[in-house]
Amino acid sequence: MAVSMVVEDGTGLSTANSYQTEANAVTRLEELQYLMGLSSAPTDSDISDASLIAGAHYLDAVYGRRLAGIRANSDQALEFPRSSVPKDAEKEYYYDSDELPEPLLKAHALAAYYAEQDSANILPNQSGPGTIKRKSVKVGPITKDVEYIGGLSQYKKYTLIDSFMGQLLDSASFAKRV
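RESULT FIELD:
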């Protein structure tokens, strides 16, 4: 049985599984194409309902516990909408509790695009963590030797998604340098 996509409308739907429609995601990807390193704009064929659902689940799983504010409804399916989410670092302005912030929607479009391109790797299972066991560096005639415990991390780092979602994270979830 195919899963139907239900787009969050800002009311905190208990059945929502996507933050935006395919058309809206493609529009946002067109704006981001050069930041993504693409020579041509993404099209409708680069996004599907399944990838939009996967992208929403990815964002909620990776960033959900660190998001600023609180969920608008206790029974909503997705992490947004939220109340008390600041728009600026000074915390002078806040998103409305029924608003889906633009950084979230851009991150969602990117996550959906990456899920469509490589669905097995958007949030893969990891057989072993990529903790460094030994590292040696030699400068003259250059040697670099790194050994990992359990192998190199299998997770991809999506820096553009991180930069958009970073605008929505609770500042207490970051280590601060004094």
